[in-house]
Prior knowledge:
It catalyses: tRNA(Phe) + L-phenylalanine + ATP = L-phenylalanyl-tRNA(Phe) + AMP + diphosphate + H(+). Tetramer of two alpha and two beta subunits. By secondary structure, this protein is of the alpha+beta class. It has eleven helices and nine strands. Helices cover 37% and strands 19% of the residues. A hairpin with a 2-residue loop joins strand 6 (243-250) and strand 7 (253-262).
Amino acid sequence: MDELLQQIAAYRQEIENQPANGADSLEAYRIKFLGTKGIVKNLFTEMRNVPADKKKEFGLILNDFKQLAEAKYENWKQQLEGTGTTTVAAIDVTLPGDALPLGTRHPINLFLNHVISIFNRLGFSVAEGPEIEDDWHNFTALNLPEHHPARDMQDTFYIQQNPDWLLRTHTSNTQIRAMEKEQLPIRIICPGRVYRNETISARSHCFFHQIEGLYIDENVSFADLKQTLYFFVQEMYGKDVKVRFRPSYFPFTEPSAEMDISCQLCHGEGCAVCKRTGWLEILGCGMVHPKVLENCNIDPEKYSGFAFGMGIERPALLKYGINDIRLFSENDVRFLRQFTSAT
Ligand code: 2U9
């Protein structure tokens, strides 16, 4: 019995001094101490040679030793798993990783990005400006001086603390800022959110998105404007699209026009969407008013330019078959999830 106890003490020492490294060493340890022909099993077999009055004492020591051997094994194993030094077979590094849940692009952005990509190909770059603007950049520089009746065309949100500040009513403030500080020629498109004090309904909202364009150089003509916009609608709606220009009035352009395209639903036949006319109005445009050029220190005798502006929500409603403009700003994921990156 004494000899057995000495042996157990020596094994205890060995286990305690055993460094816990290497998957192979762990397996060798398991076979040596915990295997079917291992040390623990053999010691239990020795029980039959222990005198009856010592069996209980020996049994307790042996159980204690067994627990030590098993605890060492478990700790060692966990340590190896934690440090990633388990055998290569345990982790197949060639398996694909877990897929991350992907979001979708907002339909307004899908539409805007498509418009931007078309104008990019014509050499227009994107410019952005502030949504909180001063009176000069939103109105006065655009030939809308104080008390000009055209200011009544748009109901404006003014900032209470400073009546000179407002939420921009169009993205034209961005073009004014570009003309004030950029070198000519300028060829930009300006996408962004704009604000108007309107009652919210299925058809209109107090904020919406616009994309405007501006090209200023020597000898820019109305023919350039027509060709640019014709290219745009052909790329956007297909080669069969027809266009027409109707004279219009905007304080910042002269002459001014509105551009219609043949209805994309009935192909000009006449339907409820085009109010039986066969035409859909998609944008306003014109030659930049000489006064606007002067306001930005550009010589109207030397330079000319064209500008255009379109709302995004209405054509996006049409494109995606949506019947309520409020869906665009409610962030209902059941709505948003339906849009993929396809335009
Ligand atoms: C500068 C000079 C001229 C931008 C223009 C329009 C015509 C136009 C409307 C379309 C639908 C606004 O969102 S909407 O209600 N816009 O019809 N916008 S010309 O003219 C400019 C802009 C900047 C310096």
